[in-house]
Specification:
The complex is a heterodimer of chains A (310) and B (179). By secondary structure, chain A is α/β, with parallel strands linked by helices. Chain A is built from eleven helices and nine strands. In chain B, helix 1 packs across helix 2. Chain B has one domain: 3-Layer(aba) Sandwich (Rossmann fold).
């Protein structure tokens, strides 16, 4: 089994075997971060470019740490201070970065499909770090890796995803990845935050949080993206917490070892209580640690694929 | 691949590993401060067998580890096939140890060069010694083994194939020729 894709655009485009290959590779990269010298020379002489059209700290830093632990040179482009402000198109920006002989572009963009478009236009690798409401593959991969590490497998698990599904690329990537690996997924959200026809992906839907948690082996709690509320119907924060917030009382009725995940940053007292976020079921900080190994594995695999083709 | 000659049978492999264990103990004047690290995959099993022989001879458990050198290869940038990255497992301190690095076949020396780089990232051993089951010649780097199970002169057209119980279900070393 070899990795053949120059890009990582979304879990929708991967086979179950390709997802498993990434997860297996992550296992090996996790060890590097436990060393005293947290660096291997695998991407020495390669350049990765972080091209972020949307604010992000944790994903950008995680990709930067991952690239540096592989000995790559990392360039960060903040679009607010770049030629993007002068009206340069995405493809032109990408082609210029390619002309600088960079090897991998890691991009976050507010438009769904932006990474796919850039990848088609360029010969160098594109890794999607989140595009609009479409996909955030490395986040879903680190969620799935963390789950597998905690529960030993993915097949047959019941995973609840709670929160703003409609605006969430994390949810979409998780749905693709989890269902491809044989887990069953239950979405739980206020009706206004559920995308239309989502049940066609084979997931269950409920608006009752107790029901969503009842048989769940894990719950992935999404961030309420209040910054995306452009005057549309959005629930009041307190009202949301009352109906959907993950609290100790609600967890007490769920499976004892239920794994609680959150992609961060947490709105404490809105999506979950502080006791749950810091409690024994929470793996939120382990997700952050695993994120580095996941991104190291992805950067390594896409760079190898590109070279195998030449 | 066409099989040309059997070089070692199960007894031959066992005797070679036992002799290497004796030589390691002799050179290091005992087994205190000794550790054995195998290069994935088959070097790991040979390292474990060497450790078992040392235990048999000296009655002391020496630490063993597994080293994956994929990320340190000098041909990563031009690799045609894609190597699978596996886990490095060295869960002890290698600082100030006499470390015996173990591989199945010593050929160009490039794997050992990568392994030395990888080891140095884990610490500063007092010494690094090299043990191999087979030395087939054709070095491309100034590297030599301290302990050799068997020297086998080969041509570059031939390949040396090592099979071990742990990975292949049988113990055997043979020379094959590319057709």
């Amino acid at each position: 089994m070899f990795w053949t894709k120059k890009d990582l655009l979304g879990l929708e485009y991967l086979t179950p075997e390709e997802i498993e290959l990434i997860l297996d590779t992550v296992e090996s990269f996790k060890e590097v971060s436990t060393r005293e010298i947290k660096k291997v020379p695998a991407l020495r002489g390669k350049t990765t470019v972080n091209l972020f059209y949307e604010p992000s700290t944790r994903t950008r830093v995680s990709f930067e740490v991952a690239a540096k632990r592989l000995s790559a040179d990392v360039i960060n482009i903040a679009t607010e201070t770049s030629s993007v402000k002068k009206g340069e198109t995405l493809i032109d920006t990408g082609k210029n970065i390619q002309a600088l002989k960079a090897d991998i572009i890691i991009m976050r963009h507010n438009c769904s499909g932006a990474a796919n478009m850039l990848a088609r236009a360029l010969d160098i690798s594109v890794v999607n770090a989140g595009d609009g409401w479409h996909e955030h593959p490395t986040q879903a991969l680190l969620d799935i890796f963390t789950l597998k590490e905690k529960l030993g497998k993915i097949k047959g698990l019941n995973v609840a995803i709670v929160g703003d599904i409609a605006h969430s690329r994390v949810a979409r990537s998780n749905i693709w990845g989890l269902t491809k690996l044989g887990a069953s997924v239950t979405l739980c959200a206020p009706e206004m935050l559920l995308p239309v026809e989502i049940e066609k992906t084979g997931v269950k839907i409920t608006s009752n949080i107790e029901e969503a948690l009842r048989n769940a082996d894990a719950v992935n709690v999404l961030r309420m993206q209040f910054e995306r509320d452009e005057g549309a119907a959005f629930p009041q924060q307190l009202d949301y917490y009352k109906k959907f917030g993950i609290t100790e009382e609600r967890l007490a009725k769920a499976k004892k070892d239920i794994v609680v995940m959150h992609p961060g940053p947490i709105n404490r007292g809105i999506e979950m209580s502080s006791e749950v976020a810091d409690g024994s079921n929470s793996v939120i900080l382990e997700q952050v640690t695993n994120g580095i190994a996941v991104r190291m594995a992805v950067l390594f695999l896409v760079s190898q694929a590109r070279e195998a083709k030449q | 691949m066409k099989e040309k000659a059997k070089i070692l049978d199960p007894e031959g492999i066992h005797r070679a590993i036992m002799r290497i264990a004796h030589e390691i103990i002799e050179k290091n004047k005992g087994s205190v401060g000794l550790c054995v690290v195998g290069i994935r995959n088959r070097g790991v099993y040979i390292a474990q067998r060497i450790a078992a022989c040392i235990k048999q001879i000296e009655g002391i458990d020496v630490s063993t580890g597994a080293l994956d050198i994929t990320l340190y290869r000098d041909d990563l940038a031009l690799a045609t096939g894609q190597p699978l990255v596996r886990k490095t497992e060295i869960d002890f301190d290698i600082n100030d140890k006499n470390l015996v690095l173990v591989d199945d076949v010593l050929y160009t020396g490039r794997t050992i060069r990568a392994a030395l780089d990888a080891l140095i990232d884990f610490g500063r051993p007092k010494s690094i010694q090299l043990a191999v089951l087979v030395d087939r010649g054709h070095r491309e780097l100034p590297i030599r083994a301290d302990f050799v199970g068997k020297n086998i002169p080969t041509s570059k057209k031939e390949s040396v194939e090592v099979y071990l119980q742990e990975s292949d279900g049988r113990d055997e070393v043979l020379i094959a020729e590319k057709e």
